[in-house]
Amino acid sequence: MSSFPGRGLPTLHTQSQSEASHHTETCNVVIFGETGAGKSSLINLVAGTQTALTSCDAMGCTTETNVYDVLIQNRTLKVKLFDTVGLGEGPEGKVPDKDARRVLKKLLRDLMKQTDIHLLMYCVRGVRATKALCRNYDLIRSEVKERVPIVLVATSLEDKGPEMEEWWKDNERSISDFGMTFAGHACVTTATIDEYAGDKLKRRRKQSYHAVCQLIEQYRLLERVQTPLLDVGRWLHSTIQQVSTMAPRYVVLGYSSCPYFTIIDEQEKA
Ligand SMILES: Nc1nc2c(ncn2[C@@H]2O[C@H](COP(=O)(O)OP(=O)(O)O)[C@@H](O)[C@H]2O)c(=O)[nH]1
Ligand SMILES: [Mg+2]
Description:
- One of its GO terms (biological process) is tRNA methylation.
- Keywords: Hydrolase.
- This protein is 38% helix and 19% strand.
- The strands form two sheets. It has a seven-stranded mixed beta sheet with strand order 1-3-4-2-5-6-7, sandwiched between helices.
- It contains six helices and nine strands.
- With 270 residues, it is of the alpha/beta class.
- It folds into two domains: 2-224, P-loop containing nucleotide triphosphate hydrolases (Rossmann fold), CATH 3.40.50; 229-269, no CATH class.
- A hairpin with a 4-residue loop joins strand 3 (65-72) and strand 4.
- Bound molecules: guanosine-5'-diphosphate and magnesium ion.
- The site of magnesium ion has 7 residues, from helix 1.
- Magnesium ion is lined by residues 39-40, 60-62, 83, 86.
């Protein structure tokens, strides 16, 4: 773990898991949200350790940005998880909201200058979604615009029935009515488990781990497809032009993520 104090233009120094240094592909994921939402617990879930300090009191224990290197996807994808200062604390808090917002904005700006932020995770408690969620969302959205996808991770859903995903079904409409759009979501529990944990909690934690990893991996897949798509787009354009002069009845369509091409008979279409 290393810290990222958010002052000056930061240099990333991470004391990573030793294996992590052998992996060249790195995905930078910044986790943000209110104090107590479960951000540090989310990191521990993905890391499979108790490395990030968590706190059960209303005052956060994360007073600066901490960076954790974690390997996922059968240890082939290196992920840098940024645990950020909790938002929403009062003036008496360890990091009052005003300061936390300033630190977070600066972190995003510095990171975008220095490297890439691949994904932003908005971590929220899985209670009823209210307009209050917009405040932090708007802060981040106005900073990164559409350049970085934001996904939503709702925690504390270990008792939600019948499945944790029910939270999304219950709240999707309000979230959209409040004007928030997410590139993906995961309904999870990041509760720590001990030897007395029941099977249901263990199962749900495992599900949660996979759901969060999937959000990260999905982003990765999208990025891989996008570049070849540009080439395919150019190739398609010229091919369609050639084909249309030679044999106007056929149009060849291709898509880099599809293992096949479709041939449409223009006459049948008509
Ligand atoms: N029941 C339950 N408790 C959680 C969950 N996630 C975190 N907590 C607890 O909530 C408190 C705050 O979590 P923490 O990860 O420190 O939140 P942070 O301030 O956003 O980093 C800690 O006591 C955690 O053990 C969860 O999914 N379910
Ligand atoms: Mg924390």
